[in-house]
Amino acid sequence: MKSVRGLLISLGLAILALIVQATVFRRFQLVTPDLVVVVVILASLNLRPELSLVVGFVAGLLVDVSVGTTVLGLRALTYTAVAFVAIQTRSRADSSPLAVGVWAGLLTLVSVAFFLMVGVLFGQSAELGGQVLRRLVQVPLANLVAAGILAVPITRLYQAGVRRT
Amino acid sequence: MLDRETKRDRTLPTFITLVVIAFVLMTFDVRATETDLAARVRSGALTLIAPLQRVSAFVIDPIADLLDSLAGLATLRAENAALRSEVARLQADLAGVEDDKARLQVLEQLYDLQLEDTATARTPANVLGRPDPTESSFVIDKGTDQGVAVGHPVVDQNGYVVGRVTEVSGGFATVVPISQDREGVTVLVGGQNGILSSQLGSDLLILEVFDAIEPLLAGDLVVTSSVSIDFPAGLAVGEIVADSPLEGTALSAQVSPFADIDTLRVVLIITWPPEPGIGDSPTTTTSTTLPGATTSTTEGG
After folding, report:
1. How far is A47 from chain B (nearest CA, A)?
2. Which of B56, B102, B236, B242 would bridge with A23, disulfide CB 3.0–4.6 Å?
3. Residues B194-199: what's their mean pLDDT?
4. Cβ contacts of B54 on chain A, cutoff 8 Å
Protein backbone atom coordinates (compact mmCIF):
# COMPACT_ATOMS: atom_id res chain seq x y z
CA MET A 1 0.00 0.00 0.00
CA LYS A 2 2.86 2.32 0.92
CA SER A 3 4.55 1.48 -2.36
CA VAL A 4 1.43 2.20 -4.39
CA ARG A 5 0.94 5.54 -2.66
CA GLY A 6 4.60 6.44 -3.24
CA LEU A 7 4.27 5.48 -6.90
CA LEU A 8 1.12 7.58 -7.31
CA ILE A 9 2.78 10.56 -5.62
CA SER A 10 5.76 10.24 -7.99
CA LEU A 11 3.60 10.02 -11.11
CA GLY A 12 1.45 12.94 -9.94
CA LEU A 13 4.60 14.99 -9.38
CA ALA A 14 5.92 14.00 -12.83
CA ILE A 15 2.70 15.19 -14.53
CA LEU A 16 2.78 18.42 -12.52
CA ALA A 17 6.45 18.93 -13.45
CA LEU A 18 5.67 18.37 -17.13
CA ILE A 19 2.87 20.95 -17.11
CA VAL A 20 4.93 23.50 -15.18
CA GLN A 21 7.91 23.22 -17.49
CA ALA A 22 5.65 23.35 -20.56
CA THR A 23 4.02 26.58 -19.48
CA VAL A 24 6.07 28.49 -16.88
CA PHE A 25 9.55 27.92 -18.29
CA ARG A 26 8.37 28.50 -21.87
CA ARG A 27 8.15 32.17 -20.89
CA PHE A 28 11.47 32.40 -19.04
CA GLN A 29 14.03 31.26 -21.55
CA LEU A 30 17.12 31.64 -19.35
CA VAL A 31 15.85 29.21 -16.74
CA THR A 32 15.24 25.82 -18.27
CA PRO A 33 15.27 23.04 -15.67
CA ASP A 34 14.11 19.56 -16.60
CA LEU A 35 11.75 19.17 -13.67
CA VAL A 36 10.66 15.68 -14.66
CA VAL A 37 14.24 14.46 -14.24
CA VAL A 38 14.36 16.18 -10.86
CA VAL A 39 11.23 14.28 -9.83
CA VAL A 40 12.73 10.98 -11.05
CA ILE A 41 15.99 11.62 -9.17
CA LEU A 42 14.23 12.65 -5.95
CA ALA A 43 11.92 9.63 -6.24
CA SER A 44 14.98 7.37 -6.00
CA LEU A 45 15.65 8.82 -2.54
CA ASN A 46 12.15 8.01 -1.33
CA LEU A 47 10.99 4.86 -3.12
CA ARG A 48 12.10 1.26 -3.38
CA PRO A 49 14.71 0.85 -6.17
CA GLU A 50 12.51 -1.07 -8.61
CA LEU A 51 9.68 1.42 -8.14
CA SER A 52 12.10 4.31 -8.82
CA LEU A 53 12.98 2.62 -12.11
CA VAL A 54 9.29 2.30 -13.02
CA VAL A 55 8.76 5.99 -12.17
CA GLY A 56 11.70 6.90 -14.44
CA PHE A 57 10.34 4.81 -17.29
CA VAL A 58 6.74 6.04 -17.06
CA ALA A 59 7.76 9.70 -16.58
CA GLY A 60 10.06 9.47 -19.60
CA LEU A 61 7.33 7.89 -21.68
CA LEU A 62 4.97 10.67 -20.62
CA VAL A 63 7.42 13.33 -21.87
CA ASP A 64 8.04 11.30 -25.05
CA VAL A 65 4.38 11.27 -26.03
CA SER A 66 3.97 14.92 -25.09
CA VAL A 67 6.96 16.29 -26.99
CA GLY A 68 6.11 14.48 -30.21
CA THR A 69 9.37 15.28 -32.03
CA THR A 70 11.75 12.63 -30.79
CA VAL A 71 11.43 8.89 -31.07
CA LEU A 72 9.03 7.25 -28.60
CA GLY A 73 10.97 5.57 -25.78
CA LEU A 74 14.09 7.76 -25.94
CA ARG A 75 13.32 9.64 -22.76
CA ALA A 76 11.85 6.53 -21.15
CA LEU A 77 15.23 4.85 -21.65
CA THR A 78 17.14 7.94 -20.50
CA TYR A 79 15.12 8.51 -17.34
CA THR A 80 15.25 4.79 -16.47
CA ALA A 81 19.04 4.90 -16.81
CA VAL A 82 19.19 8.03 -14.66
CA ALA A 83 16.99 6.40 -12.03
CA PHE A 84 19.34 3.38 -12.04
CA VAL A 85 22.46 5.56 -11.58
CA ALA A 86 20.60 7.52 -8.89
CA ILE A 87 19.79 4.30 -7.01
CA GLN A 88 23.44 3.21 -7.16
CA THR A 89 24.74 6.57 -5.92
CA ARG A 90 21.99 7.78 -3.59
CA SER A 91 24.11 7.13 -0.50
CA ARG A 92 26.29 10.04 -1.63
CA ALA A 93 23.41 12.47 -1.29
CA ASP A 94 23.03 13.09 2.43
CA SER A 95 20.16 15.02 3.95
CA SER A 96 21.59 18.45 3.10
CA PRO A 97 19.69 20.16 0.26
CA LEU A 98 23.01 21.42 -1.18
CA ALA A 99 24.37 17.88 -1.49
CA VAL A 100 21.12 16.71 -3.06
CA GLY A 101 21.27 19.65 -5.49
CA VAL A 102 24.84 18.93 -6.59
CA TRP A 103 24.07 15.22 -6.90
CA ALA A 104 20.95 15.94 -8.97
CA GLY A 105 22.88 18.41 -11.14
CA LEU A 106 25.53 15.79 -11.93
CA LEU A 107 22.89 13.15 -12.65
CA THR A 108 21.13 15.60 -14.97
CA LEU A 109 24.38 16.11 -16.86
CA VAL A 110 24.62 12.31 -17.24
CA SER A 111 20.99 12.28 -18.37
CA VAL A 112 21.50 14.98 -21.02
CA ALA A 113 24.69 13.39 -22.36
CA PHE A 114 23.02 9.96 -22.50
CA PHE A 115 19.92 11.42 -24.16
CA LEU A 116 21.97 13.17 -26.87
CA MET A 117 24.15 10.10 -27.48
CA VAL A 118 21.28 7.60 -27.83
CA GLY A 119 19.24 10.20 -29.75
CA VAL A 120 21.97 10.60 -32.36
CA LEU A 121 22.32 6.79 -32.60
CA PHE A 122 18.60 6.60 -33.40
CA GLY A 123 18.81 9.28 -36.09
CA GLN A 124 17.44 12.17 -34.03
CA SER A 125 20.24 14.62 -34.91
CA ALA A 126 17.94 17.18 -36.51
CA GLU A 127 15.45 17.13 -33.65
CA LEU A 128 18.19 17.66 -31.06
CA GLY A 129 20.04 20.34 -33.04
CA GLY A 130 20.46 23.93 -31.92
CA GLN A 131 20.10 23.25 -28.21
CA VAL A 132 23.10 21.05 -27.44
CA LEU A 133 25.12 23.58 -25.47
CA ARG A 134 22.04 24.84 -23.69
CA ARG A 135 21.12 21.32 -22.70
CA LEU A 136 24.61 20.45 -21.46
CA VAL A 137 25.16 23.60 -19.43
CA GLN A 138 21.89 25.28 -18.51
CA VAL A 139 19.73 22.26 -17.73
CA PRO A 140 22.10 20.62 -15.19
CA LEU A 141 22.74 23.98 -13.49
CA ALA A 142 19.04 24.76 -13.34
CA ASN A 143 18.31 21.27 -12.02
CA LEU A 144 20.99 21.70 -9.36
CA VAL A 145 19.07 24.69 -8.02
CA ALA A 146 15.64 23.10 -8.54
CA ALA A 147 16.62 19.88 -6.74
CA GLY A 148 18.16 21.83 -3.86
CA ILE A 149 14.92 23.75 -3.43
CA LEU A 150 12.54 20.83 -3.98
CA ALA A 151 14.39 18.09 -2.06
CA VAL A 152 12.95 18.91 1.36
CA PRO A 153 9.30 19.56 0.35
CA ILE A 154 9.17 16.48 -1.89
CA THR A 155 10.67 14.25 0.82
CA ARG A 156 8.08 15.61 3.28
CA LEU A 157 5.34 14.91 0.74
CA TYR A 158 6.44 11.27 0.48
CA GLN A 159 6.67 10.96 4.26
CA ALA A 160 3.19 12.46 4.65
CA GLY A 161 1.84 10.07 2.01
CA VAL A 162 3.32 7.06 3.76
CA ARG A 163 2.09 8.19 7.18
CA ARG A 164 -1.53 8.35 5.94
CA THR A 165 -1.56 4.68 5.01
CA MET B 1 17.78 -8.43 6.17
CA LEU B 2 16.82 -11.23 3.84
CA ASP B 3 13.91 -9.14 2.60
CA ARG B 4 16.22 -6.22 1.80
CA GLU B 5 18.58 -8.48 -0.11
CA THR B 6 15.67 -9.84 -2.15
CA LYS B 7 14.53 -6.30 -3.00
CA ARG B 8 18.05 -5.30 -4.06
CA ASP B 9 18.20 -8.33 -6.32
CA ARG B 10 15.15 -7.13 -8.22
CA THR B 11 16.72 -3.81 -9.22
CA LEU B 12 18.91 -5.09 -12.03
CA PRO B 13 16.28 -7.38 -13.64
CA THR B 14 13.75 -4.55 -13.51
CA PHE B 15 16.26 -2.16 -15.07
CA ILE B 16 17.13 -4.58 -17.86
CA THR B 17 13.45 -5.29 -18.57
CA LEU B 18 12.61 -1.59 -18.82
CA VAL B 19 15.63 -0.91 -21.03
CA VAL B 20 14.56 -3.71 -23.38
CA ILE B 21 10.99 -2.35 -23.49
CA ALA B 22 12.35 1.14 -24.26
CA PHE B 23 14.51 -0.18 -27.10
CA VAL B 24 11.55 -2.13 -28.51
CA LEU B 25 9.41 1.02 -28.37
CA MET B 26 12.11 3.09 -30.09
CA THR B 27 12.60 0.53 -32.83
CA PHE B 28 8.85 0.26 -33.27
CA ASP B 29 8.45 4.05 -33.48
CA VAL B 30 11.35 4.54 -35.91
CA ARG B 31 9.80 1.98 -38.25
CA ALA B 32 6.22 3.18 -37.78
CA THR B 33 4.39 5.52 -40.14
CA GLU B 34 2.16 8.45 -39.21
CA THR B 35 -0.96 6.29 -39.30
CA ASP B 36 0.39 3.66 -36.94
CA LEU B 37 -0.29 2.99 -33.30
CA ALA B 38 2.53 5.24 -32.04
CA ALA B 39 0.98 8.25 -33.79
CA ARG B 40 -2.38 7.41 -32.24
CA VAL B 41 -0.82 7.10 -28.78
CA ARG B 42 0.82 10.51 -29.16
CA SER B 43 -2.45 12.03 -30.37
CA GLY B 44 -4.30 10.57 -27.38
CA ALA B 45 -1.68 11.88 -24.95
CA LEU B 46 -1.92 15.31 -26.56
CA THR B 47 -5.67 15.29 -26.01
CA LEU B 48 -5.15 14.54 -22.31
CA ILE B 49 -2.26 16.89 -21.55
CA ALA B 50 -3.05 19.91 -23.72
CA PRO B 51 -6.18 21.00 -21.75
CA LEU B 52 -4.08 21.04 -18.56
CA GLN B 53 -1.50 23.15 -20.38
CA ARG B 54 -4.26 25.48 -21.57
CA VAL B 55 -5.46 26.06 -17.99
CA SER B 56 -1.90 26.55 -16.77
CA ALA B 57 -1.12 29.01 -19.58
CA PHE B 58 -4.35 30.90 -18.80
CA VAL B 59 -3.06 31.52 -15.28
CA ILE B 60 0.61 32.05 -16.02
CA ASP B 61 0.59 34.11 -19.23
CA PRO B 62 -0.96 37.28 -17.72
CA ILE B 63 1.61 37.22 -14.89
CA ALA B 64 4.46 36.66 -17.33
CA ASP B 65 3.12 39.44 -19.58
CA LEU B 66 3.08 41.82 -16.61
CA LEU B 67 6.67 40.91 -15.72
CA ASP B 68 7.71 41.33 -19.36
CA SER B 69 6.06 44.76 -19.49
CA LEU B 70 7.79 45.91 -16.30
CA ALA B 71 11.14 44.67 -17.55
CA GLY B 72 10.62 46.35 -20.92
CA LEU B 73 9.68 49.83 -19.61
CA ALA B 74 13.29 51.02 -19.60
CA THR B 75 13.82 50.20 -23.24
CA LEU B 76 10.43 51.37 -24.54
CA ARG B 77 11.58 54.90 -25.32
CA ALA B 78 14.54 53.83 -27.44
CA GLU B 79 12.41 51.17 -29.10
CA ASN B 80 9.75 53.75 -29.90
CA ALA B 81 12.29 56.03 -31.60
CA ALA B 82 13.69 53.10 -33.59
CA LEU B 83 10.18 52.08 -34.67
CA ARG B 84 9.39 55.63 -35.84
CA SER B 85 12.45 55.66 -38.08
CA GLU B 86 11.55 52.16 -39.30
CA VAL B 87 8.01 53.31 -40.17
CA ALA B 88 9.46 56.24 -42.15
CA ARG B 89 11.76 53.89 -44.04
CA LEU B 90 8.94 51.41 -44.74
CA GLN B 91 6.70 54.19 -46.01
CA ALA B 92 9.41 55.12 -48.48
CA ASP B 93 9.72 51.46 -49.48
CA LEU B 94 5.94 51.20 -49.84
CA ALA B 95 5.90 54.05 -52.31
CA GLY B 96 8.42 52.09 -54.39
CA VAL B 97 6.31 48.92 -54.11
CA GLU B 98 3.19 50.75 -55.26
CA ASP B 99 5.10 51.86 -58.34
CA ASP B 100 6.23 48.26 -58.97
CA LYS B 101 2.66 47.02 -58.48
CA ALA B 102 1.32 49.44 -61.08
CA ARG B 103 4.02 48.36 -63.53
CA LEU B 104 3.20 44.69 -62.83
CA GLN B 105 -0.47 45.28 -63.58
CA VAL B 106 0.48 46.84 -66.89
CA LEU B 107 2.76 43.91 -67.71
CA GLU B 108 0.04 41.39 -66.77
CA GLN B 109 -2.37 43.16 -69.06
CA LEU B 110 0.23 43.23 -71.82
CA TYR B 111 0.84 39.50 -71.59
CA ASP B 112 -2.74 38.62 -70.60
CA LEU B 113 -1.51 36.65 -67.56
CA GLN B 114 -4.00 34.71 -65.43
CA LEU B 115 -2.42 34.12 -62.04
CA GLU B 116 -3.61 31.01 -60.23
CA ASP B 117 -5.87 31.71 -57.28
CA THR B 118 -4.05 30.23 -54.31
CA ALA B 119 -6.26 31.63 -51.58
CA THR B 120 -6.14 29.32 -48.59
CA ALA B 121 -7.83 29.15 -45.20
CA ARG B 122 -5.71 30.37 -42.31
CA THR B 123 -6.59 29.32 -38.79
CA PRO B 124 -5.19 31.39 -35.91
CA ALA B 125 -4.10 29.41 -32.86
CA ASN B 126 -2.69 30.18 -29.43
CA VAL B 127 0.64 28.64 -28.47
CA LEU B 128 -0.10 26.67 -25.30
CA GLY B 129 3.33 25.50 -24.31
CA ARG B 130 6.32 23.29 -24.80
CA PRO B 131 6.42 19.88 -23.14
CA ASP B 132 10.21 20.10 -23.10
CA PRO B 133 11.58 23.64 -22.63
CA THR B 134 14.85 22.76 -24.31
CA GLU B 135 13.08 21.74 -27.50
CA SER B 136 11.40 24.03 -29.97
CA SER B 137 8.29 21.98 -30.73
CA PHE B 138 5.17 23.44 -29.17
CA VAL B 139 1.48 22.70 -28.65
CA ILE B 140 -1.30 24.87 -30.10
CA ASP B 141 -5.00 25.01 -29.24
CA LYS B 142 -6.39 24.03 -32.65
CA GLY B 143 -6.78 20.52 -34.00
CA THR B 144 -8.79 18.35 -36.34
CA ASP B 145 -12.04 19.94 -35.08
CA GLN B 146 -10.89 23.20 -36.67
CA GLY B 147 -9.64 21.54 -39.87
CA VAL B 148 -5.98 21.28 -38.87
CA ALA B 149 -4.17 18.26 -40.26
CA VAL B 150 -0.69 16.76 -40.10
CA GLY B 151 1.60 18.53 -42.55
CA HIS B 152 -0.18 21.89 -42.56
CA PRO B 153 2.30 24.79 -42.70
CA VAL B 154 2.46 27.21 -39.78
CA VAL B 155 3.45 30.88 -39.98
CA ASP B 156 3.80 33.63 -37.38
CA GLN B 157 1.91 36.91 -37.19
CA ASN B 158 4.28 38.45 -39.77
CA GLY B 159 3.75 35.63 -42.23
CA TYR B 160 7.20 34.16 -41.63
CA VAL B 161 7.42 30.39 -41.89
CA VAL B 162 7.51 28.72 -38.46
CA GLY B 163 7.19 25.02 -39.27
CA ARG B 164 4.69 22.24 -39.82
CA VAL B 165 2.03 20.40 -37.85
CA THR B 166 3.32 16.93 -36.92
CA GLU B 167 0.77 15.63 -34.43
CA VAL B 168 -2.91 16.47 -34.24
CA SER B 169 -5.84 15.55 -32.03
CA GLY B 170 -9.39 16.89 -31.70
CA GLY B 171 -8.61 20.32 -30.30
CA PHE B 172 -4.82 20.43 -30.19
CA ALA B 173 -1.78 19.99 -32.39
CA THR B 174 2.00 19.83 -32.10
CA VAL B 175 4.11 22.06 -34.34
CA VAL B 176 7.73 21.31 -35.19
CA PRO B 177 9.74 24.35 -36.32
CA ILE B 178 11.75 24.11 -39.55
CA SER B 179 14.92 24.42 -37.46
CA GLN B 180 14.13 20.98 -35.97
CA ASP B 181 12.33 19.38 -38.89
CA ARG B 182 14.08 16.39 -40.39
CA GLU B 183 12.39 17.13 -43.74
CA GLY B 184 13.85 19.88 -45.92
CA VAL B 185 11.90 22.76 -47.47
CA THR B 186 12.21 23.73 -51.14
CA VAL B 187 12.95 27.45 -51.25
CA LEU B 188 13.69 30.17 -53.75
CA VAL B 189 16.57 32.60 -53.31
CA GLY B 190 17.99 34.92 -55.91
CA GLY B 191 15.93 33.19 -58.62
CA GLN B 192 17.40 29.77 -57.74
CA ASN B 193 15.67 26.82 -56.12
CA GLY B 194 17.37 25.06 -53.22
CA ILE B 195 16.73 22.75 -50.30
CA LEU B 196 16.68 24.25 -46.82
CA SER B 197 17.43 21.85 -43.96
CA SER B 198 18.07 21.95 -40.23
CA GLN B 199 21.57 21.29 -38.96
CA LEU B 200 22.86 19.69 -35.79
CA GLY B 201 24.02 22.03 -33.06
CA SER B 202 22.80 25.25 -34.64
CA ASP B 203 19.68 27.38 -34.87
CA LEU B 204 20.73 28.38 -38.39
CA LEU B 205 19.45 26.45 -41.39
CA ILE B 206 21.58 25.15 -44.23
CA LEU B 207 20.64 25.95 -47.84
CA GLU B 208 21.94 23.79 -50.66
CA VAL B 209 21.54 24.79 -54.30
CA PHE B 210 22.58 22.12 -56.77
CA ASP B 211 22.08 23.96 -60.08
CA ALA B 212 23.42 27.32 -58.98
CA ILE B 213 24.08 29.98 -61.58
CA GLU B 214 25.25 32.82 -59.39
CA PRO B 215 26.59 33.29 -55.84
CA LEU B 216 24.35 34.31 -52.96
CA LEU B 217 24.92 37.43 -50.93
CA ALA B 218 24.42 38.15 -47.24
CA GLY B 219 20.90 39.45 -46.69
CA ASP B 220 19.37 37.71 -49.72
CA LEU B 221 15.75 36.87 -48.96
CA VAL B 222 14.80 33.17 -48.79
CA VAL B 223 11.16 32.39 -49.61
CA THR B 224 9.24 29.16 -50.15
CA SER B 225 9.34 28.00 -53.75
CA SER B 226 6.42 27.26 -56.04
CA VAL B 227 8.10 23.85 -56.49
CA SER B 228 7.55 23.10 -52.79
CA ILE B 229 4.92 20.48 -52.02
CA ASP B 230 4.64 21.24 -48.31
CA PHE B 231 4.40 25.06 -48.34
CA PRO B 232 2.60 27.63 -50.50
CA ALA B 233 4.96 29.72 -52.62
CA GLY B 234 6.26 33.10 -51.54
CA LEU B 235 6.31 32.75 -47.74
CA ALA B 236 9.35 34.46 -46.20
CA VAL B 237 11.60 31.98 -44.39
CA GLY B 238 14.80 33.88 -43.59
CA GLU B 239 17.87 35.52 -45.02
CA ILE B 240 21.34 34.46 -46.11
CA VAL B 241 23.84 35.01 -43.27
CA ALA B 242 27.08 35.42 -45.28
CA ASP B 243 28.19 35.68 -48.92
CA SER B 244 28.32 32.20 -50.47
CA PRO B 245 30.47 31.68 -53.57
CA LEU B 246 29.78 29.13 -56.28
CA GLU B 247 31.46 25.73 -55.99
CA GLY B 248 31.16 24.45 -59.52
CA THR B 249 27.42 24.35 -60.11
CA ALA B 250 26.54 24.00 -56.44
CA LEU B 251 26.63 26.19 -53.38
CA SER B 252 25.65 26.00 -49.77
CA ALA B 253 24.80 28.85 -47.44
CA GLN B 254 23.62 29.36 -43.90
CA VAL B 255 20.19 30.90 -43.44
CA SER B 256 18.93 32.74 -40.39
CA PRO B 257 15.17 32.10 -39.97
CA PHE B 258 12.96 35.17 -39.47
CA ALA B 259 10.48 33.55 -37.09
CA ASP B 260 11.47 33.81 -33.43
CA ILE B 261 10.19 30.56 -31.94
CA ASP B 262 10.96 31.57 -28.35
CA THR B 263 8.55 34.52 -28.36
CA LEU B 264 5.66 33.01 -30.32
CA ARG B 265 2.25 33.50 -28.71
CA VAL B 266 -0.06 33.15 -31.70
CA VAL B 267 0.46 31.36 -35.02
CA LEU B 268 -1.50 30.85 -38.22
CA ILE B 269 -2.05 27.37 -39.64
CA ILE B 270 -2.40 27.34 -43.41
CA THR B 271 -4.67 24.75 -45.01
CA TRP B 272 -2.25 23.49 -47.61
CA PRO B 273 -2.71 22.09 -50.19
CA PRO B 274 -5.91 24.16 -50.49
CA GLU B 275 -9.09 22.18 -49.95
CA PRO B 276 -11.43 22.08 -52.96
CA GLY B 277 -13.69 25.12 -53.02
CA ILE B 278 -11.65 27.38 -50.76
CA GLY B 279 -10.21 29.36 -53.60
CA ASP B 280 -13.56 29.37 -55.45
CA SER B 281 -15.75 30.62 -52.63
CA PRO B 282 -16.09 34.40 -52.32
CA THR B 283 -15.05 34.44 -48.67
CA THR B 284 -13.61 31.97 -46.16
CA THR B 285 -13.74 33.11 -42.57
CA THR B 286 -12.14 31.42 -39.59
CA SER B 287 -12.73 32.69 -36.08
CA THR B 288 -10.82 32.07 -32.90
CA THR B 289 -10.72 33.48 -29.41
CA LEU B 290 -7.30 34.82 -28.51
CA PRO B 291 -6.37 36.03 -25.03
CA GLY B 292 -8.27 39.25 -24.60
CA ALA B 293 -9.76 39.42 -28.08
CA THR B 294 -11.71 37.55 -30.73
CA THR B 295 -9.94 37.44 -34.03
CA SER B 296 -11.27 36.50 -37.40
CA THR B 297 -9.35 35.99 -40.60
CA THR B 298 -10.96 36.49 -43.97
CA GLU B 299 -9.54 35.02 -47.13
CA GLY B 300 -10.56 34.60 -50.67
CA GLY B 301 -12.94 36.74 -52.60
Report:
1. 12
2. B56
3. 87
4. none
